[in-house]
């Protein structure tokens, strides 16, 4: 996500960029060591595109809680993580962070450097201000350590005009999806975007296919309860390999910006990604409802519980931040519908507060689908499992995407890594 | 003085030879003790020593110390030589080492040879300065900008493949950055495009420094073309070659920005060099101890190769000591 966003959102407009740069520069000038003046709290993140939404949320928060949020952007995933991890034990650490959910948040929580926000969560849940099914993604040892900031749904973007011109409709079943790929291929359009560019996107197809074949197995595998060498994982890899055999994929070094333009201009059929890619598609000329729409990949295994991948960033308070009291108070106001609406509508993405109206027609359609079909929301691959395991396995999956016939070797390598990483993780838990 | 100049016959003035009395010598010695003695000079060297100590020596020994620990940035545990044992068994480290060797060989072969060839070819050419200027221009571009430019060219749908397809060479169009070893080779070529310019400048300076008499004498003896280059020009450029090759070795061992922007060491860590592996292990995976071990190996390689090279190339300098 975030760092991911950094690489995936260069298509933000000039004004946004200037505002983000200005906010970043101002925030940097203010510094973190001395904290912010009373009534202001800094939120550190790695994504320049989030500076404007955070400012909008800050304005709304001022009317709700009398505290203004000040975005501070460290526009590099690596630098951001280094600063967070190296400063967490000092009193120079940022007051609030935009961090990842899942195991990355747990990794941070077990350092003892971030604040238990269970009270805020329960207060919000009591008012119906948070989707309680997300709780597990923000929990460590039964306590909540982060509040959801956004709720990105992992969908397939497509161009309805191109689909209509080729006699296709939004795929409602797995067979529809395969038929659409066949039809687009025969029409000279590359049906699917796949990429290893930037490393992390290598997991996209793995998580999408596996979760549509056996969501329970995906959840168990991601939590170290199943093995990568299982026949069910092999089946998912073979399915992806069959798409390669049919030549359905783009070159594996095509980034998401180019893919977004490809969908809008009718060169690429479908792009799987989080709903946060919507702003990039719009910047490339996409008009939601006309030449841009999205669908949730149908279940291949219709007997399994229908599922969808989600992604949600965590708002975190640090224990030693200079403005920690105000930061905690600000966190208490974060889930307020006014604050959440200002944030999600500015970001144009999904919202974890069910009382906030969807930011766009496209998001509205996905939210309805998730609600009507009672989709099981599964956290993204990137947030699942010990971070060092995920960092290593995305490289393994990249190897598979470049040589699909190597899937057995790749899965064995992944399992070896998983054995070691889970052992270390569990030892650390016991310690 | 004026009188001396105007007199017809030069007047020989007696030169005064400074002498020191024992008393003066003692006095000067005490001044020297205050300002110029061995201990006093330490005061002046202290800032430099402090900088080198804090920024170079301490981090080096801290890294050596850290390499004996398993350290995730929060907790650390002494593991002795385990990190070095892991290095020997890690296939990623092996690939990194191989890529690093490729970078050293490629950087020695391509930018140095190309720089020398272009400098010699354009040295006395009409409008040669213009050709040199064009070749030097990429050096003025930052490494990151160069990498972005080459990424645009080398992706599967990039400019290089588009050109190849346009001229009917579809068979040569390939995924330049996706497969090993062509991703490493492609990046070495991209780096050559940028680095060759500086080498052209340095070799041109070397060519200008060759005394004209030597080349004229060689010409009178019938030396032209390759013989002139082989027996006259090249030996005369030796000092400059030592500098250029030395710089090439160090630059190739610390290659980072080009690789980071073009492939991030991927796909599947196939294009990592030791510098990238060290960075990824330390700052992405937070294997601080393991990263320190890689840093130490890299440091040993850099220092050893530079030392061996300079010792071989400048024996007279070491001999005079």
From TrEMBL, chain A:
Family matches, as Gene3D superfamilies: Periplasmic binding protein-like II
SUPFAM superfamilies attached to this UniProt entry: Periplasmic binding protein-like II
Family annotation (Pfam families): SBP_bac_1
Stored InterPro entries: Bact_solute-bd_prot1, SBP, TAT_signal
Transmembrane segments: none
PANTHER family: ARABINOSE-BINDING PROTEIN-RELATED, BLR3389 PROTEIN
Name of this protein: ABC transporter substrate-binding protein
Species name: Streptomyces colonosanans
UniProtKB/TrEMBL annotation, chain B:
UniProt name for this protein: Permease
Family, as annotated: Belongs to the binding-protein-dependent transport system permease family.
Domain ABC transmembrane type-1: 97-309
Native species: Streptomyces colonosanans
Topology class, membrane: Multi-pass membrane protein
A Pfam family of this chain: BPD_transp_1
One GO cellular component, as annotated: plasma membrane
Transmembrane segments: 42-61, 101-123, 130-150, 185-207, 237-262, 288-310
Keywords: Cell membrane, Membrane, Transmembrane, Transmembrane helix, Transport
GO biological process: transmembrane transport
Compartments in which it is found: Cell membrane
InterPro entries assigned to the protein according to its UniProt record, in alphabetical order: ABC_transporter_permease, MetI-like, MetI-like_sf
CDD domains registered for this protein in UniProt: TM_PBP2 (cd06261)
């Amino acid at each position: 996500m975030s760092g991911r966003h950094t690489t995936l959102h260069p298509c933000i407009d000039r004004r946004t960029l200037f505002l983000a740069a200005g906010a970043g520069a101002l925030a940097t000038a203010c510094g973190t060591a001395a904290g912010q003046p009373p009534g202001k709290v800094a939120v550190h993140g790695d994504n320049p595109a989030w500076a404007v939404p955070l400012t909008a949320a800050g304005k709304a928060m001022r009317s709700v809680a009398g505290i203004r949020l000040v975005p501070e952007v460290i526009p590099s995933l690596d630098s951001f993580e280094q600063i967070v991890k190296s400063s967490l034990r000092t009193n120079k650490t940022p007051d609030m962070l935009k961090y990842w959910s899942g195991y990355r948040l747990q990794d941070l929580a077990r350092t003892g450097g971030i604040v238990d926000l269970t009270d805020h969560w329960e207060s919000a849940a009591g008012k119906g201000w948070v989707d309680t099914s997300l709780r597990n993604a923000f929990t460590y040892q039964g306590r909540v350590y982060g509040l959801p900031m956004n709720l990105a749904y992992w969908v397939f973007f497509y161009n309805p005009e191109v689909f209509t011109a080729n006699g296709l409709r939004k795929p409602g079943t797995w067979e529809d999806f395969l038929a659409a790929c066949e039809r687009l291929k025969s029409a000279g359009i590359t049906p699917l975007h796949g990429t290893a560019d930037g490393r992390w996107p290598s997991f996209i197809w793995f998580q999408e296919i596996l979760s549509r074949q056996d969501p329970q197995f995906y959840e168990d595998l991601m939590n170290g309860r199943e093995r990568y060498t299982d026949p069910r994982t092999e089946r998912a890899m073979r399915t992806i390999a069959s798409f390669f055999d049919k030549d359905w994929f783009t070159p594996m070094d095509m980034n998401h910006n180019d893919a977004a333009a490809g969908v809008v201009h009718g060169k690429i059929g479908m792009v799987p990604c989080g709903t946060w890619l919507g702003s990039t598609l719009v910047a490339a000329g996409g008009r939601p409802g006309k030449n841009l729409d999205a669908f949730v990949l149908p279940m291949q295994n219709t007997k399994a519980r229908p599922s969808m991948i989600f992604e949600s960033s965590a708002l975190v308070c640090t224990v030693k931040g200079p403005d920690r009291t105000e930061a905690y108070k600000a966190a208490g106001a974060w889930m307020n519908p006014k604050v959440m609406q200002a944030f999600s509508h500015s970001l144009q993405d999904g919202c974890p507060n069910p009382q906030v109206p969807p930011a766009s027609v496209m998001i509205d359609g996905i939210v309805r689908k998730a609600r009507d079909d009672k989709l099981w929301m599964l956290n993204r691959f990137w947030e699942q499992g010990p971070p060092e395991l995920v960092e290593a396995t995305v490289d393994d999956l990249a190897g598979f995407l470049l040589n699909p016939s190597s899937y057995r070797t790749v899965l064995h390598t992944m399992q070896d890594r998983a054995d070691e990483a889970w052992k270390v993780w569990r030892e650390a838990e016991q310690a | 003085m004026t009188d001396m100049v105007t007199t017809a016959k030069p007047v020989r003035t007696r030169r005064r030879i400074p002498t020191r009395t024992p008393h003066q010598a003692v006095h000067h010695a005490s001044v020297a003790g205050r300002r110029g003695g061995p201990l006093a000079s330490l005061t002046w060297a202290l800032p430099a020593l402090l900088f080198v100590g804090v920024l170079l020596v301490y981090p080096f020994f801290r890294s050596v110390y850290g390499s004996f620990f398993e350290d995730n940035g929060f907790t650390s545990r002494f593991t002795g030589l385990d990190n070095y044992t892991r290095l020997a068994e890690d296939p990623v480290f092996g690939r990194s080492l191989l890529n690093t060797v490729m970078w050293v060989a490629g950087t020695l072969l391509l930018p140095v040879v190309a720089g020398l060839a272009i400098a010699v070819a354009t040295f006395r050419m009409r409008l040669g300065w213009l050709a040199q200027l064009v070749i030097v221009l990429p050096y003025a571009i930052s490494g990151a900008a160069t990498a972005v430019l080459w990424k645009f060219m080398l992706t599967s749908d990039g400019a290089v493949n588009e050109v190849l397809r346009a001229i009917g060479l579809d068979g040569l169009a390939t995924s330049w950055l996706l497969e090993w070893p062509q991703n490493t080779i492609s990046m070495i070529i991209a780096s050559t495009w940028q680095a060759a310019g500086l080498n052209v400048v340095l070799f041109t300076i070397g060519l200008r420094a060759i005394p004209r008499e030597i080349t004229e004498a060689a010409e009178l003896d019938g030396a032209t073309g390759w013989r002139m280059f082989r027996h006259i020009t090249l030996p005369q450029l030796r000092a400059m070659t030592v500098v250029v090759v030395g710089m090439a070795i160090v630059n190739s061992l610390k290659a980072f920005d080009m690789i980071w922007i073009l492939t991030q060491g991927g796909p599947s860590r196939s294009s990592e060099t030791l510098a990238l592996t060290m960075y990824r292990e330390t700052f992405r995976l937070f294997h601080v101890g393991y990263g320190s071990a890689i840093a130490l190996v890299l440091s040993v390689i850099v220092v050893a190769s530079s030392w061996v090279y300079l010792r071989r190339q400048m024996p007279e300098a070491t001999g005079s000591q």
